[in-house]
């Protein structure tokens, strides 16, 4: 146990040393760190989560990626005109996100965000991170479901569902109002309500963005979290509004639970595609 505690202390010291360098880089300017730094983290993490998938979507290469594609008959590669229009909408929403980050600085400071040293201990960061995740899941479920209300859907969220077979960058292909309430608010509701050190806010945004892009990629790759659950939502619309716990509670994933996609909804640790591991028996019956 002593070795474990010594290791944790070493990690804490390392994180504080690195954070001091960032503080010096921004001249201890909290506003600049949050507005520019958070916008930079937001943009760079979005690019990291998308660049490889964008290359595949544009070129259809490498060819071996097709065997990991969930909806294999769509967008391999993506039609150029549709792809570039998607990029234009996404660029607008990324700029909108940066504006919202700038406007949210006073709120973040009011609710307890800190930029100074020391950074929180690892166990505190873990608890806060779990809290961010819970609030993100809850707010996304209810706001996303609200966007599917008939009086709102056709004006806002329908745009996002133009991609029945989504691509990673289409994670933020949406109407600006939809982007604010279904994308931005769930990301930031945890940091706003719980208060946090800025370093954890940056980690949270980066991981959440990369994960969201993967869940829209339409590729179920080895060792990565499964995108089957949200992909099914893009196919069926009225199923799988959020994370599985909320959908189970409100019984909004009953069709999914009976589907072959539910069996495939897991991380796998081999190179055999998940649809080969769990073949669709109905397809076999049709071919016979």
Please tally the β strands and state the result. 0
Helical amount among residues, as a percent range?
Answer: 55-70%
Measured between the Cα atoms of the first and last residue, the distance is 60 Å
Order of helices and strands: HHHHHHHHHHHHHH
Strand coverage percent: under 5%
Number of helices: 14
Tell me the major beta sheet.
Answer: none
What is the CA-atom radius of gyration, in angstroms?
Answer: 20 Å
Mean pLDDT: 93
The computed structural class is mainly alpha
Shape descriptor reads: globular
- Low-confidence segments, given as residue ranges, are none
What are the key terms here?
288 residues, globular, 14 helices, 0% strand, mainly alpha
